[in-house]
Write a structure and sequence with these properties.
single chain, alpha+beta
């Protein structure tokens, strides 16, 4: 599933049909009891394994983001957008299709 954001000049793909292992790993990463991590940091870390074909001039390699030292507010916007995009995709996997 391709995701694009023209404002952040960003595109990437999310695993369309994640395996059960991938889904469980994602869910586990979200509920880890690490009180040092904020919500978006946990969502970001959980999302990274489900992302491919990343293209972004602002952040060429998402795995190298040092959120403790980065100061660019656009990077914070990017983290929030990507994290919520993956979260929404995973949530929709549970949606029950309505029959016509």
């Amino acid at each position: 599933m391709k995701i694009e954001n023209d404002g952040l000049i960003l595109s990437f793909e999310i695993v369309e049909h994640p395996t059960v292992r991938q889904q469980l790993k994602y869910r586990s990463d979200l509920v880890k009891s690490d009180t040092d991590n904020d919500l978006f940091s946990q969502h970001w870390a959980a999302a990274l394994p489900l992302i491919s074909k990343w293209e972004c001039a602002l952040l060429p390699d998402p795995t190298e983001l040092d959120i403790d030292n980065e100061t660019n507010p656009q990077v914070a916007n990017l983290v929030e957008f990507v994290s919520m995009s993956v979260f929404n995709h995973i949530q929709k996997l549970d949606a029950i299709e309505k029959k016509a």
